[in-house]
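--- STAGE predict ---
source: upstream dedup step, 1 unique chain passed
mode: sequence only
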Amino acid sequence: MSILPLFLIPFMPESASTFADEVDLYFLFLVGLTFFFSVVIGALAIFFMVRYRRRRPDEVPEPIEGAMVLEITWTVIPFLISMFIFAWGAKIYYDMYKEPKDALEIFVTGKQWMWRAQHPDGVREINALHLPLGRRVKLTMTSEDVLHSYYIPAFRTKADVVPGRYTMTWFEPTKVGTYHLFCTEYCGTQHSGMIGTITVLEPSAYQSWLAGGVSEGSPAKAGEKLFASLACSTCHQDQNRGRGPTLAGAFGTQRVLDNGATVVADEAYIRESILMPNIKLVAGYQAIMPTFQGQVSEEQILQLIAYIKSIGPKQDGSAPTMATQAGAPAGALDGRSPMTPAAPNAPSTN
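--- STAGE serialize ---
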């Protein structure tokens, strides 16, 4: 029987991202290092058992010269190897989890048992994700129910999708094609069916695909409509600053809380302020905002966050005025602090 078919087995997934080659090299280094030391230590163990076995009942082993040098050697060498492994692994981890600049941001929501994705222009996908070749892509992810894990083997990226939190992963596709998407965290009886496809297209083909998709408006536009329909502007307009602060330029800034602490107004803080508004109260405002727990879905919260981001600081670093904010409710946001509305059914960050 020929053993040739064994060499045709794909022992590793296809490499299709900028991370893949280094991750593979790191993995193969660990496998090779393990194999090398397994063989060397096994061979030395057999040699010593034979060479230094006791031949007579009264035989006393002779002392080994240079024992201290030997002890130091087999302590220092493994230490240096382990530090090299740590440094290389930390470098890969840092590259993979450092938030990229100028990335295409896509919102992903996990739910038993499917993946929902929304592109910046509003096109939505279920258990699929289309991406442009050679473009950095950032996924902002959360779960509506239990713990999931978003895994694309060809990209060598995997990130937990956690209920009540936002997690991030990013990658840059390097090869056109269709690749597997899995959930790799047991999430219920149909966990094995929570799969999908990642399709990488040439930039022109990706734009054509977007143009042919059904768009419900960008997440920011949907968030603006939701902001208005839930009467958030009742408390967040400029003339109502005594009830709740406005939000222009607030995202990503430091907020001073009533207890003197500070917090960054990021995605997690905005979500917490919508669902549990009185946990971290901005200094100068009363705890009068109602909770929106159970009234807005995780996808709607992501839309509100996208809207707040869209009315953030201008490129020169200054907060935009109401007159320059297309589609924003008059006086809705001003950068003094995140949302803290008092009116019922008005989500905010305080």
